[in-house]
């Protein structure tokens, strides 16, 4: 087993998948999944740009990417977190920016397992807050987050600008 395949959970989950960290060695398998995730959110199909973005994240280490794989090594899902700070809560925080499960593996608790691993590591690292966003139409994600104890922030608006 390579360093990229080092398992975060020593025993496979009940649905026969395991979790690991992504490394540059995973780029060929991760880029198409990341591209599909971006398309799910309305971005144009552009695997080359998705690959370049991921390659830079993995090279610089400015995000942590978790993978869910089956016993054959196929990447089923991924989650990506970025470190930041919360001025309001006065703590270090992580933004779970991306969480995507291939459609064929949804409903098998893969996303929940990834989120649980992120939570476990955030707690161990002394992270005071874990944040995420999703679109209003992504009801499946809303249900998972609420089931896992996340509270929806009410009364806030997100404003974005390209620079």
Low-confidence segments: none
- The number of distinct β-strands equals 5
Write the H/E string, N to C: EHHEEEHEH
**Shape annotation:** globular
Order of adjacent strands in the largest pleated sheet: 1-2-3-4-5
Strand content: 15-25%
Discrete helix count: 4
Characterization of the model:
The protein has a five-stranded mixed β-sheet, with helices on both faces. It has four helices and five strands. The protein is an alpha+beta fold.
Describe the structure using short key phrases.
163 residues; alpha+beta; five-stranded mixed sheet; 4 helices; globular
Q: Summed up, what is this model?
A:
This protein is α+β, with helices and mostly antiparallel strands and 163 residues long. The chain is built from four helices and five strands, in the order βααβββαβα.
Question: Which secondary structure elements does this structure contain, and how are they paired or packed?
Answer:
Layout: E1 17-21, H1 27-40, H2 47-60, E2 64-70, E3 75-86, E4 91-101, H3 110-124, E5 129-132, H4 139-147
Parallel strand pairs: 4-5
Antiparallel strand pairs: 1-2, 2-3, 3-4
Helix pairs in contact: 1-2
